[in-house]
Amino acid sequence: MKKILVPFLALFIIQNTSAQNVSIKVAQKSYSNVDPDGAGPATGSVVIQFLLQYSGGTVLADGMGLSMVYQSSKLMATVANTTVPVGNLGSPPVGSTWLQTVNNRPGNPINKTYNGVTYDRRMIVGFNESSGNPTVAVDGNFQALVEITYWTLGNSYPQGGFITPEPGSILPQNELSSDQGLTTFPYLSPDLNNAVALGGTVPIYLSKFNVGCKTNGVSVSWSTQNESNSNHFEVLKSADGFNWENIGQQPAAINSTAEKNYQYLDLNGSTGLYKIRMVDADGSFTETGSLRSSCEVKSYITSQVYPVPAKDGITLAIKSDKAIKTDLQIIDASGRIVQKLSTSLMIGTTNIPIDVSKMAAGEYLIVSTNPNFKLTKKFIIVR
Question: By CB count within 10 A, which of 24, 48, 180, 219 is most buried?
Answer without folding.
Answer: 24
